[in-house]
């Protein structure tokens, strides 16, 4: 008999957009995303406006979905207390978002159980359970894009940590970053040299063009195209990032020994200059017993947070998964 499907209203609340969809999860099948929509977050208008937009998005999906619903799963920017669904802290990109009783308000307005995760954790849970890690009992998920974040997922549970802050892979020290200041106030962290902005900065330092042929500012995609054509500055800029990521992943696998590593985000889509350097950094850092740990690509793309948010409802005890 086929496993019972679970149907969840999923929201992904970011600094600029709120994505929403009906996510259907059924064991052994790919997650189904329906009634997808996006609205501006309107973060600058304050936490109450964002909450109102989130509630409206959830209502839209609830009205479109025909049949029973198992709950509301939310992925949100900011520090989240998953036990209460509260946003315990948000930075200046979302003024007034910190302190929002997000889970409780959604549950009250929609009349459904609601569970909330930080967006990086939701992304990681989605990839671990339904994407690149679906056959693994444990995995380290790392997303490298404008910033770097991740999570360790064991048996379908995210390691949240004492402050619900675990997984700040971008704020781990690495040798390539020695002396480089980080946005968090520390020095020597991975993020400023390995995330997308660090690649662009390095390319400019190495004499690369600040603008593209059409006059638009240099970006990571163009640097990757130039690296593929043999542009040495582009290759070197990507290699610094890749090597640093490899070193940190190797070190983390020595500590955690996961079944697999899942690498996602725009920077992880870079070509061989980045990946070859990543492998060099990896082999320099990793211990022999864990050197064969597979490093896989994420499979869910931008839907990972929605799927992880839905998974968090299904596995929370509101509905047992078979
Ligand atoms: Zn840092």
Brief digest:
The protein has helices at about 45-65, 100-110, 120-130, 190-195, 195-205, 220-230, 230-255, 270-285, 305-315, and strands spanning about 5-15, 15-25, 30-40, 70-75, 80, 85-90, 115-120, 140-145, 150-155, 155-160, 260-265, 295. With about 325 residues, it is α/β, with parallel strands linked by helices.
Topology of helices and strands:
Layout: E1 6-13, E2 17-25, E3 32-40, H1 47-64, E4 71-76, E5 79-81, E6 86-89, H2 102-110, E7 114-118, H3 119-130, E8 138-144, E9 148-154, E10 157-158, H4 191-194, H5 196-205, H6 220-228, H7 232-256, E11 260-264, H8 272-285, E12 295-297, H9 304-314
Bound molecules: zinc ion (ZN).
Zinc ion (ZN) binds at residues 171, 182, 184, 186, 189, 191.
Report on the architecture of this protein:
By secondary structure, this protein is an alpha/beta fold. The protein folds into 2 domains: 6-118 and 302-314, Nucleotidyltransferase, domain 5 (2-Layer Sandwich); 132-298, Nucleotidyltransferase, domain 5 (2-Layer Sandwich), CATH 3.30.420. It has helices at 47-64, 102-110, 119-130, 191-194, 196-205, 220-228, 232-256, 272-285, 304-314; strands at residues 6-13, 17-25, 32-40, 71-76, 79-81, 86-89, 114-118, 138-144, 148-154, 157-158, 260-264, 295-297. The strands form 3 sheets. It has a 5-stranded mixed β-sheet, sandwiched between helices. The protein has a 5-stranded mixed β-sheet with strand order 10-9-8-11-12, with helices on both faces. A two-stranded antiparallel sheet has the order 5-6. α1 runs parallel beside α2 and α6 crosses α7 (232-256). The longest helix has 25 residues, at 232-256. It is globular. The chain starts with 5 loop residues before the first strand and ends in an 8-residue tail after the last helix. It binds zinc ion.
């Amino acid at each position: 008999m086929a496993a019972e499907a679970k149907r969840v209203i999923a929201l992904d609340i970011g600094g600029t957009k709120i994505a929403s969809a009906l996510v259907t999860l059924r064991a052994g099948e790919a997650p189904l995303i329906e009634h997808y929509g996006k609205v501006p977050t309107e973060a600058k208008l304050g936490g109450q406006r964002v909450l109102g937009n989130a509630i409206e998005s959830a209502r839209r999906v609830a009205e479109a979905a025909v049949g029973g619903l198992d709950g509301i799963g939310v992925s949100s920017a900011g520090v989240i207390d998953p036990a209460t669904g509260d946003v315990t802290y948000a930075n200046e990109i979302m003024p007034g978002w910190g302190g929002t009783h997000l889970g409780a308000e959604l549950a009250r307005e929609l009349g459904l159980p609601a569970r909330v995760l930080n967006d990086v954790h939701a992304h990681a849970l989605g990839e671990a359970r339904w994407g690149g890690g679906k056959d693994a009992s444990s995995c380290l998920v790392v997303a490298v894009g404008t910033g770097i974040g991740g999570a360790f997922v064991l048996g379908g549970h995210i390691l949240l940590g004492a402050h619900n802050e675990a997984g700040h892979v971008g704020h781990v020290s690495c040798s390539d970053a020695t002396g480089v200041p980080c946005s968090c106030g520390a020095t020597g962290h991975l993020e400023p040299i390995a995330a997308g902005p660090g690649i662009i900065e390095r390319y400019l330092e190495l004499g690369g063009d600040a603008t593209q042929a059409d006059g638009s500012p240099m970006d990571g995609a163009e640097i990757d195209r130039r690296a593929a054509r043999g542009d040495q500055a582009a290759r070197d800029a990507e290699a610094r990032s890749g090597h640093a990521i490899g070193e940190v992943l190797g070190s983390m696998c020595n500590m955690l020994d996961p079944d697999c590593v899942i690498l996602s985000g725009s920077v992880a889509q870079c070509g061989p200059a980045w990946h070859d350097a990543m492998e060099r950094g990896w082999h320099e850092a990793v211990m022999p017993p864990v050197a064969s740990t597979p490093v896989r690509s994420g499979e869910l793309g931008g839907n990972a947070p929605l799927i992880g948010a839905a998974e968090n409802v299904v596995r929370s005890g509101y509905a047992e998964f078979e």
